[in-house]
Amino acid sequence: MALADVLAGIPGLGGFQARRAMMDQEDEADIRAVMGEMLEIFGYDSTFASDGMEAWDIISSNDFDLVITDLGIPGINGLELARKMRANSIATPILII
Q: Hey, how many other C-beta atoms are within 10 angstroms of the C-beta on 17?
């Protein structure tokens, strides 16, 4: 399934309201750039983190409409980040890739 299809399936996506996305995945600059451009097309302002711990610090002190994370991100991985978010009652939709 293409990323555009996944993002299009998220409720509320596609209006004109600015949305914020946290993306801690991708230590590869090319993929990060493409993901950032895709999110911008869908109306998201993106915030990036270089590892799971930095992502948690940012997520725990900000509101996001979507979190995209990588299963293999350094620090705490994407699954651990998702568990930590839910354990702290952060209900933001999470896309783990």
A: 8
Note whether 2 and 39 are within 8 A (CB).
Answer: no
Per-residue model confidence as pLDDT tens digits over 59-73? 999 988 888 888 888
CA distance 85 to 10: 18
The answer to whether 19 and 44 have CB atoms below 8 angstroms apart is: yes
DSSP state of 78: H
- The per-residue DSSP string of 3-66 comes to HHHHHHTSTTTTSSS-EEEEE---S-HHHHHHHHHHHHHTTEEEEE-SSHHHHHHHHHTS--SE
Q: Which residues pair with 69 in a beta bridge?
A: 96
- For 38, residues 6+ apart whose C-beta sits below 8 A from its C-beta are 3, 4, 7
